[in-house]
Structure formats: C-alpha cells, structure tokens
Amino acid sequence: MRKKNQKITSLGVLFFVSANVYAQTGDTIKVKTVDEVKITVGSRNKSRVATDTPVPVDVINIGSQSVLSPQMDLNQILNYAAPSFTSNSTTVADGTDHVDPAQLRGLGPDQVLVLLNGKRRHTSSLVNINGSPGRGSVGTDLNAIPAFAIERLEVLRDGASAQYGSDAIAGVINVIMKKNTNNLTAAITAGGFNSKGANDHRGGWDGGKYQLDLNYGTKLGTTGFLNFTASFLNRGATGRAGTATGDIFNAYNAIEQRALENGVDINSLFGNIGNTSNTQQIINYIHQYAPYVNYFSPAMLTSIQNAGTIPELQSILKADVTGNELAYRGLERNDFNMRVGQSKLGSGQFFVNSEFDISPSVRGYAFGGLSYRQGNAAGFYRRPNQSRTPTSLYPNGFLPEIASDVIDLSLAAGFKGKVGKISYDISNTFGQNTFDYTIKNTANTSMLGSKKSEFRAGGLGFLQNTINADFDTKFDWLKGFNVAFGGEVRLERYKIESGEEASWALYDINGNIQTPGTPVELKPTDFMGATRPGGAQVFPGFRPGNALKKGRSSVAAYLDTELDVTDRWLLSAALRYENYSDFGSTFNYKVATRYKLTHNINIRAAHSTGFRAPSLQQIYFNATATQFVGGTAFEVGTFSNDSNVARILGIPQLKQEESKSFSVGFTAKIPQANLTFTVDGYYIKIKNRVVLTDQFSRPVGVYPEGSPQYDLQQGFDKANANAATFFANAIDTQTKGIEGVISHRFKASEKVSLNTDLAVTVSKTNRVGEIKGSDVLVNAGQINRYYSEASRVYMEEAVPRFKASLNNSLEFNNFSVLLRNVYFGKVTDPNTTDVNGDGIVDSNMVNGKEVPIEHPIWGAKVITDLSIGYKFTKGLRLTIGANNLFDIYPDRNFGPKSLKKPSVDASGNPINNIDLSNQDQFVYSRNVSQFGMNGRFLFVRLNLSF
User: Fold this and answer.
1) pTM of the predicted model, to two decimals?
2) Which long-range CB contacts under 8 A does 872-876 form with residues at least 24 apart?
3) C-alpha distances in Å from residue 816, one per residue of 68, 195, 628, 718, 805
C-alpha cells in the first residue's frame, strides 16, 4: 500500500490545511463541573447543559485525566473512568492485539457511534474474527486519537439512531478537541510493569512505556484559533507465559543438529521423504552423526545403526529427547515460551483543530489528524519437532511475528453561520484507515531450502466520506421550541489487498503451486513424513482470490425537536429516514421527556428505535485457503456474505440490525451537601444481530439421496468448499441494565478541595427467540454452529456485567492526589473444561447435539490506582503513580485435565484431554480479561506549560 508515500502525503495535506486556515477565539470553557458544560451531543439545543437533558450524558474532563491518570491511551482512560464503558486488551489475537475492542452498556463495539467535534468518525478496517469479546464486530479505533488532543468527552448513554444515524444503538461518544491558545503544553511520561508476573513470572520490570505529548494553540487574527497536538509512544512487550511444557526435540532433531554443526544439512537431501533419490545418503548421515549425540544409550545407538530403512529410523527417532537436548544446546524451556501479554507498539500522531472567520457572518472550521502505529505481536511457538518448522532455517524452532502498520487519516472542514433566525452548519468529513500486515521471523515451510523469513501478507483498507447539512432555529412558542433538521450523504469504500505469492502459496517439491492433480509424492514433508503446510506461518497472506474493492452510499434526512412546554417540562422528538444503496431504507424515531419535580430533582424517560447497517467489512471480508481432499481442491475459511458459497448454502444477504430501547431515570441535587445523584434504567431489544458463525463443515460419510446430510454435501461440493464461516443475521437479543452516579464536591478553602464520584453499572444481555439459520444447514444438524455456546458466552458473559468505580481527587496546596478503586465483576470463559475436578465436562443437549457448558468463571477483582502530583511552579508539575497498585491478576487458568468421560470439541469430535493453558503458556485466559493480565504499572510524568 505504499506506506511511506502515504504517510508523507498525509502529513503534507494536514500541514497545508493547518498552515492556511484562519482561526477564532481561544477556548472559553473550563470544565469544572458537569453543570457548567453546554453539551453538543444528545441535544441540538446549543444552550442545553448535561444535567438538563432527558437522557443521560456524562462529561469527562480528559484534560485533568491526562495529568493524574496512570492510563495513557483513550480506551483505557475510559475503561477506568466510565463504568458503562469496557475495553479489553487482547493477546495472541493477530491484528486485534493492536486495536482494543471497546463496548458501551455491554453491547458490541460496532453498536456505539463515535463523533469527533460532533462529526461522524470512521471505523477501523479490521474486523475482529478472533477469540475475544466483540468477535465479529468492527469498531471505531479510539486509540487513533491522542488523549492529549482532547478537552473532554461527552458520552450519551441512550439510543440515538434517530438523531445521528447508524451504530448509535448503545449510545454516542463525542470527542471534543482542545481549543486553547497562547500556550505550549507538554507531558513526558515514562513507566513500566513492576510485577511479580513480569518476564514470564520471574519478576522485575517489563513492558516499558515512553510517551511524549505536545500541544500548542495560537490565535490567528482577532477571533480565530489554531491548536496542534503531537504524540509519540514507544511501548515494549510484556511476558506473562509460564514455562513451556511438552515435547520440544525428538531424536532426529538431535542428529540433524550434529550434522549441521559439521556442515551437513540432511534436510536439503529431500523434499518428500518418501520420494527422494538420496535415501541411502540420508541413512548413512544418520548412522554417521548419531554417535555424536553423547546422551544416546548404547541400545538406542545399536537400534539406529541396525535400521536400514527410513520407516525404521522414523520409528526410532521420534523419541522425545527434550531434556538432554536443551542441556546440550544451552537452552531452557522458557526459551520456547510464547509472547503472551502486551504487544509491542510504536506510534506517532499529529492532530489539528481550528476555527476561523470567512466573513463577518460566516465562520469556517477544519480539524483532523494522522495516526501511524507500528505494532508487533507474536503467535504460537513453532517447535523443532513439528512439521511446520524448517529446522535448517530455525534449528531451535521459531516464534512468528505479525507486524502491523496501521495508518489512520481524518480531515473535516466546513462553514457555519446564521441566515435570519436559522443557524446552519455545512461540512465534509473524510476518514480512512489502513491495516497492512508483514509477517516476520517466519517461514513458508513448503518453500524447500528457502531462507526467506519475512513476507508481505497484504492488508485492509476502509474509507468514509460524509457530507452534512445541519440547520436549527428557535421559535417563541410556549417556553421555547427548538427545531433542528438536516441531511447527510455518506460514501464508504472497503478493500482487501493480496499479499505476495509466497505469503499464501502451498508449493510442491519442484517449487510449483500445488493443484488438485499434485501427486502425494510431490508434496513436501518433514523427515517423519508429515506434510508441510504452505503460506507464512502464523498468518498466511490474503490471496488474489480474497482481494476486492467494494463500496456503497447512503443518504439521510432528519428532524430533531425540543419543546419546553413549561419551565419544568421538556419534550423532545426526532425522526430520521436513511437509505442505503446495498440493502434499502430504514426509518427511526425517538421521543424523550424530562420533568423537574423541584429545582433540584428531575425525572426523565426516553423511547427510541434504532438501527445499525452491516458494515462493508462484515459483508465482504473473506480469508480462505485451499485444502486438497482426495485429489480435489476445497476452499476453507471465512467467506464473504455475497459469495457463491453463501448463496448455495442458503446464507441470506446481510440486513440492518434493528433496535427498540426504553430508558427511565432521575437526577437529584442536594446543594447544601454538594451532592448530585443520577440513576437510569434501560432496556434494549435488538433484532437480526449480525454474528460471525462457527465453522460449518461438509458432512463425512455416505448418506441416502434426499437426506439433509446428502443435500448439504451436494451444496458444499457445488460450492467447491469443505468448511465455511460466515457473517449472518442469526439472533435477536435483549439487554437490561441500570446505571447510577453519585458525586460529591467539597471545598474547604481556595487551596483544599476533594471531589468524589461513585459510579455503578449493572447489565445483562441474552438471546431471545430462536436461532435464524438456513434450511440447508439447519436440517443437516448444524444449527448450533450459527450461534455456538462460545459465541453465547462472548456476547452475554465475557465482559463484566457489574462494574463500579470510586474516584477521589484531592487538591491540597500544590499537591494533587488521585485515588481510584474500580470493581470489575466476574466474567465467563468461552472455553470448557473440568472445572469442578470430577473428571467430567458437564454438557447439555442443545438442538439434539451434546454441547459442553462447564465454563471457568473468573472472579471479580478490585483494581486500585494511586497518583500523587506536585506543582513546583505554574508551568511545572511532577506526578508519580500506579495502576493496579496491589499487583492484582485474574484467576489462573486451568491446565491439563484428563477426562473420565470424553467431552466433544467445537466440531463434535470426542476429546479425552483438555489443556486451556496450552502447555503452561496461557497462565491467564487469553479469551477474556476484565482488566488485562500485566499486573502493577508504575509511572512518572512531567507536565510543562509555557
């Protein structure tokens, strides 16, 4: 994707824009309490404040958070500051390691709308297809916006599709950028994890984070402002694996190593061990170098010397010699650990915000930014005794790495003014996200003798351009009638770019890409006769058949009104019509009301319908591979919703999710005690939720013609497929919850103050009604794979359903103290094992199939943050602190379990042993985590102001 040229061009565009705009006044908003802030989300009445709205709106002062908070990115700041918001870091999850899925009110990452300065923000090009909360969704990458560029966040916790369009089912997050002028501020932060679990549980420090933030604002002319932010981050990896168990070296590995040390590469003598003219030479070399292995017993050496065929040697040399060979090579089991924990990341971000006079009555504005992040995550360790390891290149095996280049570009510009009594705002907002993969420290094992260890695996791209025309006016009717109306045109583009051939190809021993006619004897094998896989290990690249460019457009019109019936009673109503070029139209409405029982007590309620258009990523993402069965090529993997495979198997075209939501609550103030209360309950029902199915497979065996299994076999054969995963509108869900906030402000003097906030959220999501499946798949008994037990857990129980935070912020002379405790409720792991130790994995019969249901439940934890800052001068402040002060970890994972009664895996095959830790690598679950698995983080931060 020509990454370097793209970065240079993007920077040039932003520089040109920022250097040629003329701006408005400096910021006049100083966020002290919610009451003072005139909000820009949830109400289009520009004089409305957060405590006066008919729906809950949280205002979070990110400026103050970025001074004392141990969290350094926007997702994690919100995760600790707003209980209704959840963001989980993932590990060993491919690209998702670098984009944390974020959720509001327990719904999906794609069911919350993100705005930047009130304008729709584009989503990521990455669809989350791995095992983590939010599986199958496409969210907005909040970490692409530097926290240092943000003044405040407005979090609307209510359905708002009728006001803002698609995605706003759970709510809206509006990011307001800084506007301050005549000031250069800087923050220098250094920190790392000082934890008992650091360095694969050997203790000490790891995962260092070093961040530099700069912000400068200047006036241009008399009424304009221009505000720049630059942010740079270098983040190291953490290690939270245990000690690798299991077999690592076999006896053949020992002999081939001794041969290599003497200049002989035995593996170079064959491509397929059963089809080589060098058989006798291979046998001779094994006989020659076996005595070099000094720990072989006399009996074993005799057996080797007496073996005159490859099959005889294979039987002898498969013996495990891990302990002795580790000692010989000067290695430890920890050297074969995976990299479990925080991934490596380096980033540079540049953002600008501006407003300026075009004429005495028209004001222009422009804002946006460039974010470039380079991530590095690792996969499963490839051990030397496995066929996926070319030991000539990697004698000790290897840990393949996924390097991700993520470029995020956005630019919005517009003008606003007033004609008569009607205010207008005309704007264009452009956003683009690209995600390029380079696979490093890896190999394509079917490329015999190759030393190639790095592959371009292709990439993803998403582009969105939105044109808005917004108008509002006020009428002197009753106590005031605000009317807003407008329209929107949105264009979206999505692309998948293929990787280089070697990143995805499966070659034969002559270097040709395998075909259905490739004989078995031409397929590469290791010495033991196991077939070698193709493609770059850990992440085979996108193939030319996966590459595509797709797009769509939508148009919308809305009407949004607010009527103050009396001084106490507010009514609001909104209507929105939207038409998409690919699936049709949707019409939504919202009604809300607020009544002031007294000057200090309000009650409020709202009802709305909403929708979420299936993303282009969900419609068109595909990643497939070729598998040969009986000389026939079959496709396996994730197929796009418009593919021939989907059509033949009866998967319908994706359509919009539709929601109905109800909320009711109250706000109260006790001025004498400086207390405020808010409590809101809500109910959200979503119809036709888009899910990523589990893998459907072609039935094995012979079935009578006309039977469901026979029909499914015919469908798979016609589609030339063997196994398939799809996105589908498979289920309906309901979400119920209650949220409460209590705030206390105490000011003893001008130099002593204490602010305390207690926030609690409780929610529950579950499926309602039957699973909606295609007749072809359902009749063949595969309905459970539409919405599996694991998918149920990810949606219903993989994020905390109870979460609470107690924040205390103390100002004492020049000292500032933040003490925060966050309670993360229990979560359920989607995996199953013998949790209670009775040798049996409990199961239920679901749709006629045995489904294991004995899941680990990871207990609730309290995480404590403490920061202490001291202001030496007006322009110099030093802060030291800790996240997870007491070094709390999730509950430990379950290791190897031998079962008295066989359980079944996801495909229904019997299994007698389960090891959720994957040979002591996942000491803590990699699939769910309330707060991460990295332990205590200590930091020091220097804030400067000039």
Assistant:
1) 0.91
2) 872/814, 874/945, 875/944, 875/945, 875/946, 876/942, 876/943, 876/944, 876/945
3) 8, 25, 65, 69, 19
Rounded (5°) CA angle 390-500-141:
100
Q: How many Cα atoms sit within 13 Å of 173 on the Cβ side?
A: 28
> What is the C-alpha to C-alpha distance for residues 240 and 922, in angstroms, rounded to an integer?
8
- What kind and span of H or E run contains 793? helix 789-796
Would you state the structure tokens that stand for residue 237, as one six-digit string? 């990896």
Are 127 and 618 in contact by the 8 Å Cβ rule? The answer is yes
Helix, coil or strand: residue 76: helix
Exposure string for 369-396, b = 16+ CB within 10 A, e = fewer: bbbbbbbbbbbbbbbbbbbbbbbbbbbb
Reference 887, options 839, 841, 935, 922; nearest CA is: 935
Interval 436-483: pLDDT, tens = 999 999 999 999 999 999 999 999 999 999 999 999 999 999 999 999
Mean pLDDT of the chain: 90
How far is it, in rounded angstroms, from Cα 709 to Cα 64? 62
Residue whose entry in the numeric block shows the structure tokens 């909040």: 142
Say how far residue 913 (Cα) sits from the centre of its chain: 31
Coil/strand/helix, residue 70:
coil
- 41-44, Cβ contacts within 8 angstroms, sequence gap of 24 or more: 41/115, 41/118, 41/154, 41/156, 41/172, 41/174, 42/154, 42/156, 42/158, 42/160, 42/163, 42/172, 43/562, 43/572, 44/163, 44/470, 44/472, 44/482, 44/484, 44/560, 44/562
Quote the pLDDT of residue 135. 86
Pick from 590, 731, 739: nearest CA to 677: 739
- End-to-end alpha carbon distance in the chain: 40
Burial class from Cβ neighbours inside 10 Å (0-12, 13-18, 19+) for residue 319 reads middle
What are the pLDDT digits (tens) for 176-207? 999 999 999 999 999 999 999 999 999 999 99
How does pLDDT run across 703-749, given as a tens digit for each residue? 999 888 888 888 887 766 778 889 999 999 999 999 999 999 999 99
Q: Which residue is listed with tokens 């995976």?
A: 338
Gyration radius of the chain's alpha carbons: 30
Residue 652 contacts residue 688 (beta carbons within 8 Å) = no
How far apart (Å, rounded) are the C-alpha atoms in residues 214 and 773? 53
Question: Residue 119: what are its φ and ψ, rounded to 5°?
Answer: -110, 140
Burial (CB < 10 A; 0-12, 13-18, 19+), residue 402, is buried
3-state secondary structure of 779: helix
- Both tokens assigned to 472: 């509002």
Strand partners, 351: 229, 369
For residues 382 and 368, give the distance between their C-alpha atoms in angstroms, rounded to a whole number. Answer: 43
